[in-house]
Every structure is written in C-alpha cells, then in structure tokens.
Amino acid sequence: xxxxxxxxxxxxxxxxxxxxxxxxxxxxxxxxxxxxxxxxxxxxxxxxxxxxxxxxxxxxxxxxxxxxxxxxxxxxxxxxxxxxxxxxxxxxxxxxxxxxxxxxxxxxxxxxxxx
Amino acid sequence: xxxxxxxxxxxxxxxxxxxxxxxxxxxxxxxxxxxxxxxxxxxxxxxxxxxxxxxxxxxxxxxxxxxxxxxxxxxxxxxxxxxxxxxxxxxxxxxxxxxxxxxxxxxxxxxxxx
Lengths: 115, 114
What we know:
The complex is a heterodimer of chains A (115) and B (114). Chain A is mostly beta strands. Helix content of chain A is 0%, strand content 54%. Chain A is built from no helices and eleven strands. Chain A starts with a strand and ends with a strand. In chain B, strands 2, 4, 5, 9, 10 and 11 form a six-stranded mixed β-sheet that branches. A five-stranded antiparallel β-sheet of chain B has the order 1-3-8-7-6, with no helix packed on it. Chain B is mostly beta strands. Chain A binds chain B through residues 4, 31, 33, 35, 42-43, 45, 48, 50, 55-56, 91, 93, 95, 97, 101-109, and chain B through 32, 34, 36, 41-46, 49, 51, 90, 94, 98-107.
C-alpha cells in the first residue's frame, strides 16, 4: 500500500512568494496532521483535520498560514507571503481514526527554504 | 495538557553497548505512548507503542520500552547498539479519547561509534 505522499520534496523560494505544500494521506485514514520541524523548535503540530474538518489549528503560526482539506484524499498547506523564518521541513501524517491507538503514519516531508 | 520531556538531546554509545534513551511524560489521563525514529532526510517511523496492555513493549529492530506509571517514564532501550541505529529518536504522548493529537519530545540524536 502507498504511504503518505507529500509534494514537493524540496522547495526553494524567495521571500514574499506563495508556497503550497501538498499531501495525500493513506486511503481510509480519517485524520490528517501537518507538523513543522526545525532545529530550534523541534516538531510542532500546526493543524489537524478529522473527516476533512479542521479540529485544532492552534499551532498555525499566523494568518500567513492556511490549510485546507477539500476531500479525504488531499490536503494543502499554504504560506502567503513566505518569510525566511518559515524555512523548515513540513510533515504530513495520517491515522485511521476511530477506536485505535492513534499511531501516526508520516510522509517523507517537504523541505522548504525561503531566501 | 500533555507533554513529553526527553533527557539528553544527544547520546553517544559504542557499537555493541547498551542504548538507553530517556522519556518522561505528563498526561491528565492514562496515556498512549510512542517512540518514533527518524533517519536523515526521511519521515518518522514508528518503533513501538504503549496502549495500556503490557507495560514492557517490544518494537522493531530489537528496541523495547517499559511504561512506569509511578515514574511517569517510558524509556527506550536496546541491549546492543548497531551502527544502523544511528538516528534521531522521538518520544510522543497522546491522551486518548477522540483527540488524536500527538505531542512530541524534542528528540534525542543517537550516535553509534565503531
């Protein structure tokens, strides 16, 4: 079975540009998470969806960040405008939901560099 | 609120030596606990998980962890380190119920010396 698929794997952009990161969760998984990883702050939860509905977006840094999940098989994380401090690895993860232990399955990550 | 503290951001061992990575948690309800491993330029992979069954949990690659409620700990061990174990290890906690949010520790980088 395919795992969580993220694109792009690497993105280099200039400050002020719009960045869109994409994620396809594992088929049948009901919950989807976006995490950000940096050396300084470690792994931070940005937002999570359950059945395509945002449940907790308290980790979204500011209004420049937005996330959508239009259907069960696709989610985007958008940064507009981007800033150098947004440089990080962004991970998408999914979990089956329901009565389960909540183990997360992670994608390979999208490494973002904002110049 | 739930939280995780990993003691030691960097642990270095010799090949064949015992690996001990420490994790303490805070949770208002009985937790689910996880250890993940991250190899360079990859995502996180589950090593093992505690789900209120046996307190000693065995995972992949010879790792195991013991849940100690009295100490609020979930330390990760492996009797004999291998060069391929070099990676970053993350402890995570989930408080259960319908909230699937995992809170991760800062991570411990394991170096294995020949």
